[in-house]
Amino acid sequence: MSSTFVANGCASNGSEVTSPAITKSVDAKQTNSINKPVQFLERIFRILVEEKVITGPQDVRNKVINFKYPHELQQLLDLPIGEAPTKDEVLVEACQRTIQYSVQTGHPQFFNQLFGGVDQYGLAGSWITEALNTSQYTFEAAPVFTLVEHSIVQKMLTLVGYENGDGIFCPGGSVSNMYAMHVARYKMFPEVKKKGMRALPRLVAFTSDESHYSITKAASWLGIGTDNVCKIKTDERGRMLPVSLDEAIRNTKKEGGHPFFVCATSGTTVLGAYDPLDAIADVCEQHGVWLHVDACLGGASLLSRRHRHLLASVER
């Protein structure tokens, strides 16, 4: 069976019949269509280079931030979302102002314990992932990224010392701690998945008084209750006291509570303290309680031959 299609410049058998002038016009439009996003991105890239956002180091005589109060900044930025399309020139200016009034994390006098500056390799990776704009939930949707994620997880398992394990990427430390508490609860009471918290005894979690607030927040999110988070005393350096942990677990049992989760911290956010994991693991093993290590801040010590000992027994 044959098919026909009739349109401007096309013969009935599907072969293209166009004049050289028309072909040249079409090619020009296609070229402009391709070049427009490239030209826009090149302009933004030049701004990043000129402002030394990605090239650094920035001039120490400049300010870390060109600070403006919220009401002043709202007048300088065109933030309201309108109905009409926005021209490229307006977007370029918006990008310039965004850089101008943002904190310059690459500045020599910018100091933060969590982030600072830009890494060219990480930035390149971000460009690629954003340009491909894929979801990473299956191999079919993201074959390369799926294998990259698997490889990184396997490397982390090796660094931690797990013989058998698995892992997932999380959007941040707070959610990671909540996932850990969720897994600990399911491990001890798998029926919670179907029956909910009403079928469980009063669960109690334990963490140091120097730990991250996300542990208390996780207890709230998961329906365990913030009153059921027991804060354990720390020493003068901010490290959890294993003896106090053992005492608290025993008291909880006497009061009818059910200890199910202990969060040790490797790198507290205020003092940078590393809890004594080996001694804490002994207490958890004795009482049959899940041990989670929040290493969001200090976990990088696993990559250091000199400081790796700070996370000794993390695999337990």
> What is the number of strand segments?
4
Q: Describe the biggest sheet?
A: 4 strands, parallel
How are the strands of the biggest sheet laid out side by side? Answer: 2-1-3-4
Number of helices: 10
Distance between the termini: 70 Å
Strand content: 5-15%
Structural class by secondary-structure content:
alpha/beta
Report what the structure shows.
There is one protein chain. With 316 residues, the chain is an alpha/beta fold. 42% of the residues lie in helices and 7% in strands. A four-stranded parallel sheet has the order 2-1-3-4, sandwiched between helices. Helix 10 (277-287) links the parallel strand 3 (258-265) and strand 4. Helix 1 (20-50) packs parallel to helix 3 (88-100) and helix 6 packs across helix 8.
Sequence-ordered SSE layout with sheet pairings:
Layout: H1 20-50, H2 70-76, H3 88-100, H4 120-132, H5 143-160, H6 173-188, H7 192-195, E1 203-208, H8 214-221, E2 229-232, H9 242-254, E3 258-265, H10 277-287, E4 290-294
Parallel strand pairs: 1-2, 1-3, 3-4
Record keyword descriptors for this entry.
single chain, 4 strands, 7% strand, 316 residues, 4-stranded parallel sheet, alpha/beta, disordered N terminus
